[in-house]
Amino acid sequence: MMEKLIFIFCCLIPSLLISQEDLYQTTRDEFNYGEFRPNNVAPIYGIAEKPGKLLGNIYLDSIFRSSTVVFFKEIVKRYDPNASDSIAGYKLRINLLEKLVEFKMKGGIKGIDNMAIKKIQTFDPAGNILKTYINGKILGIDSEGDDGFYELVFDGPTIKVVSLAMLKKKEPTYHVALSMGDKNAYYYFKTLYFAKSMHENWKEINNNKNAWLDLTGPKAKWMESYLQQNQLNLKLPTDLRQFFQYFEKIMHE
Q: 170: helix, coil or strand?
């Protein structure tokens, strides 16, 4: 009896192996080419990757600076018709992302909408003026900065120059399938320059030497010579200011 059972089992082995092989091949085909997907959303397996971050600065100056602030009169009158339209001594910084001016108070940070403020001056610890910012809606410049602050770079009788720092975001370049690129996004500044000659409208200026020299008109040769002698870099606000200070000087000699 035992010998018969062993004989029958041995006869069945090849067919069992064939069936096993068929099943193995079917699963393999489905895995490679078919609908074999244990979870329709997640990968079959994988290692969790670190997410990207949002990096960069959203402030014109991240340091809280001592200041004087001039509000639009119509804003102040809503609260007190007899109140002054200016305050001084508060430390602040300008938030480009939220379009707010953040004041450092004893109880925390107080944010005031850009559109309530006409002008801001910030000071260093010695009391010297660092920056002057003017609300875009009073300048009449046709640009994207109507709800932001322009920095006053130079203010002369013949020419005025302002700059507008615009907050931009560089998106991640990471490619999931290739596992290549940068996962982080970055805030950065794009700075535009505008100039206004006497009796003319504001116009955008390319921030390069030739464009600034063109603004000086018949004095361009003198200004180019001054530029070379003093080795000024007009991409620096301090050098640009010096350049136009000299221009105003020779214009009124």
A: strand
Q: Render pLDDT for 19-53 as a digit per residue (tens, 0 to 9).
A: 444 444 454 444 444 444 454 554 545 556 677 78
Q: How far is residue 74 CA from its own chain's centroid?
A: 31
Q: Where are the domains of the chain?
A: 54-193, 206-253
Give the separation between CA 214 and CA 198, rounded to whole angstroms: 15
| pTM beyond cutoff 0.90 | no
